Known about the structure:
The chain is 23% helix and 46% strand. Strands 1, 2, 3, 4, 5 and 6 form a six-stranded antiparallel sheet that branches. It is an alpha+beta fold. The protein has helices at residues 24-41, 43-49, 129-135, and strands at residues 4-9, 53-64, 73-84, 87-98, 101-118, 121-124.
Amino acid sequence: MQIYEYSHIVGFEETNLVGNVYYANHLKWQGRCREMFLHDNAPEILTDLSQGLALATVRVSCEYFAELFAFDRLTIRMQLKNLHQNRITMLFEYWRVGDIGEELVARGEQQVACMRREEDKTVPIPIPTALQTALQPYIE
Length: 140
């Protein structure tokens, strides 16, 4: 199974008064990793998003193992856990990259539902074909 990787360097704006990364940023990075996957693997979905498609986050979690600080280098690895009806569940691992190797600092999960905006409501739809095609190499 393939894994999608997103690289990130922590900035000062992502830290709190104590100097470590504020926990909510890990969730923000999940979203950024997901967005970059779409940009790199299913750019046509980006057009669909402006035409009523919604990838609604319905569940998100993160388990923290070590603190991060400004200028830490990260590799965020995303893999597909499963596809079910209109839902996609992804797993995330956050790896600090340093001179002596990598350290797993957090692990997360996110589930999105494919929806379509129709007038004043949002309705579930099947996973779009272009997205299914992009996800194919990531299925076990």
